[in-house]
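Table S2 (text version). Query chain:
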Amino acid sequence: MSSATTVTRPPATGAATAKARRRLSPARVALYVFVTLTALAWLFPVVWALLNSFRDYNYVSAHGYVSFGGFTLQNYVHAWQQGDFTRHFLNSLIITVPAVLLTLFLASCVAFVVARYSFRFNLVLLGLFTAANLLPQQALLIPLFRAYRSIPLPLWMSDSGQLLDSYWGLILVNVAFQTGFCAFVLSNYMKALPHEMYEAARVDGAGVGTQFFRITLPLCRPALAALATLQVTWIYNEFFWATVLMQSGSKFPITSSLNNLRGQFFTDYNLLSAGSILVAIPVLVVFFLLQKQFVAGLTLGSTKG
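Corresponding structure-token output:
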């Protein structure tokens, strides 16, 4: 007959007790309170706009914004129709997709040269592309506007006959200002790739094109996905250059078309809130679709193991 054995848990060590005390320390509690308040302050405008987008303007005018009631879906219907969102969403698609793809491709080419080849003007080349992010865009407003007005384009590319008031103009200006940042990020990413892999590829007869398209770009997929998410957000939400370089209202991207929801004598902020929510939906969809790759691209290299 076997005797029953009693298993006793060892007493808590001093390290475990100190760890438990650290978890409940005032500094940690203050940190949690600060993070929670910051998150609430960050989310409050979005939640407030979302709530008021479902409320009727007449009800709010009579009872005030602090009241509760007057819920309706007509704000979204009126915002879509009054803002002509179908046309302007298509305009944003025409501008954003080519600009993002061209930016990532050019930035990848620059980053590959900077990261894989050593020459005298290596850092100068990277600094030249990054300099566009250091100069305030407003400083280039007048010379760029005059240049766009003077550069002709064939009518099949622009019905205005010039770079001004054309989709190509917005695509080019976004590519020019965003390529430097993407090249800087991708160059640091590519420098972390093992050199032995490229040496083995050269031994096997792989040329520069093969090393770039079949080795480097597939390995940079997380970084490219993270940058694609950021670039879609920045270019899609770009408002300044679209307002300056576009002359025809029918060519405005979706962010600039929000001006159509503002009246001459008063503004229906419930209608404007509904339009803002509609404008934000595509960016949220892109972020959630690329969320896994976006987080992987941001955190890669943060730990070593």
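Notes on Table S2: Residues 301-305 have pLDDT under 50 and may be disordered. Residues 197 and 205 are 13 Å apart (CA to CA).
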